[in-house]
Specification:
The protein has 330 residues and is an alpha/beta fold. It is 30% helix and 17% strand. Strands 9-8-7-6-10-5-11 form a seven-stranded mixed sheet, with helices on both faces. α7 packs parallel to α9 (261-294). The two termini are 31 Å apart.
Length: 330
């Protein structure tokens, strides 16, 4: 039975470890499927992973909606295997469940990856083994604060913890530490410029991977100045917000205190913060697509857009993530 690329992508699962298979395709000859996989030109890969993005915010990203969602394949529903940053990122890198990666919490997620050797076998190392040039840009995993470059990466531009300082942030740029100040450099814009340089410098005869992990839209919210006044009127009022009757919920949820107007106002403000930060991510997507078009690489490049986990803004009276509700997992 033949399988086309759309069906393959829909069934590829949560890990990018399946991506090396994109260099192969089944074809039909004479009305029947061939019995073996035949090699085709390896595809370049751009994989963009945002941080703590609720599925209810994607509508506000015009490039993602018109250039990726409308023209590509939307995998619905799609869920994080473990709805919390560190374990989810370990799963995305390795294709393994959290109890197999042994990255089971966010605090210390990177030291866990390093100590267990989990990061030695990832989709980056496997793609590198089959001839890909690999580049990483953004947030690797929680509590990464080293000069060390993890295995499998040819180009490395990664945030160093702590990430949430109000005035400055730091990257490990191929082993050299680079400091940037928010007053002049938006963090996602900085990442975008490095990714675009990487894309424009690639040779046509060698496939490549760019794994792009902006910290946006994770709080606290530092939107790019050009977007900081947008979405003033955006409202947040899902049907399950502050759910009145929790009698059908587990004891952990039933114990949640009554939802207040203060919480409601705070959640709406934070929702606007996410929408504002995501505009720089959308700008990043647009710049990368433009670079691919300008260099004639777009037709041979797969672009994936996803997030590490969802986010709760008061649904079922809950906040953030960690629990297996749709809003935290999608």
């Amino acid at each position: 039975m033949g399988i086309n690329r759309e069906d393959f992508l829909k069934g590829a699962g949560t890990s990018l470890l399946s991506l090396p298979l994109l260099g192969f395709a089944r074809e039909r000859r004479g009305g029947r499927a061939t019995s073996s996989l035949e090699a085709v030109t390896p595809a370049n890969i751009v994989a963009i992973c945002t941080d703590d993005q609720t599925a209810a915010s994607v509508w506000a990203m015009p490039t993602v909606m018109t250039q990726l969602a409308a023209k590509g394949v939307r995998v619905l529903p799609a869920f994080a295997a473990t709805p919390i940053c560190g374990p989810a990122r370990g799963t995305l890198l390795s294709g393994r469940w959290s109890h197999n990666t042994r990255v089971t919490k966010t605090d210390g997620a990177y030291p866990q990856m390093k100590a267990t050797g989990m990061e030695n076998d990832t989709f980056a190392s496997r793609l590198k083994d089959v001839g890909y040039i690999t580049g990483f840009f953004g947030k690797y995993n929680n509590d990464y604060d080293e000069r060390r470059i993890p295995p499998g990466w040819d180009r490395w531009f990664a945030f160093r913890e702590p990430l949430n300082r109000a005035d400055w942030y730091e990257f490990n740029s191929d082993g050299k530490l680079r400091r940037f100040y928010r007053a002049t450099d938006n963090e996602t814009d900085v990442i975008a410029s490095r990714v675009v340089d990487f894309v424009r410098s690639r040779r046509a005869n060698q496939p490549w991977l760019a794994y792009v992990c902006p910290h946006d839209p994770h709080g606290p919210y530092y939107p790019a100045p050009r977007h900081e006044d947008e979405f003033q009127g955006a409202t947040w009022d899902p049907a399950s917000e502050g759910e009145a009757d929790l009698s059908d919920k587990p004891a952990l949820v039933r114990s949640e205190p009554t939802y207040t107007q203060v919480e409601e106002a705070q959640n709406e403000q934070e929702y606007r913060g996410k929408l504002r930060e995501l505009q720089a991510v959308d700008d990043l997507v647009r710049k990368v697509l433009s670079a691919l078009t300008d260099t004639g690489q777009l037709q041979n490049t797969y672009v994936f857009f996803f997030t590490d986990n969802g986010y709760l803004f008061g649904e079922h009276r809950l906040q953030k993530k960690n629990l297996p509700y749709d809003e935290a997992c999608r």
